[in-house]
Design brief:
The chain has helices at 18-31, 47-57, 83-96; strands at 4-7, 35-38, 64-66, 100-101. It is α/β, with parallel strands linked by helices. A four-stranded parallel beta sheet has the order 1-2-3-4, with helices on one face. α3 links the parallel β3 (64-66) and β4 (100-101). The chain is globular.
């Protein structure tokens, strides 16, 4: 049997703070999943928050898949970046931490998607 831990809408740090993020990470780790799927709105779009989130779940030893949400890519009018540019930055950052980013490409394992 395959175990998949899936969650979304943490909205770190606004909805789930650092303590809540650690509780969530420990809960996922205790499940000992084969895969972790994070289905969007990890953050409120701040690059620093996204990096903290990634670091917090980095040690979980299984494939981790992320689909970015609208709040992750939200751009304030004062920011000098587009949502597309932010998405590219977040994808690059996620991949640098070993996450599989679900941005128009499937996750394949042993030729199974």
């Amino acid at each position: 049997m395959i175990k998949i831990a899936a969650f979304s809408d943490a909205h770190f740090p606004k909805l789930v703070g650092i303590k809540g993020l650690k509780v969530l990470r420990n809960s996922v780790n205790n499940i000992d999943p084969d895969y972790v799927v994070i289905a969007g709105d990890l953050t409120e779009g701040e690059k620093e928050s996204f990096e903290i989130f990634l670091k917090e779940f980095e040690e979980i030893d299984c494939p981790k898949l992320i689909c970015l949400g609208n709040h992750d890519l939200w751009v304030q009018s004062f920011e000098e970046i587009t949502s597309l540019e932010k998405m590219e930055e977040f994808i690059e950052m996620g991949e640098s931490f070993g996450y599989h980013m679900l941005d128009n490409k499937p996750f394949l394992e042993k030729d199974i998607g």
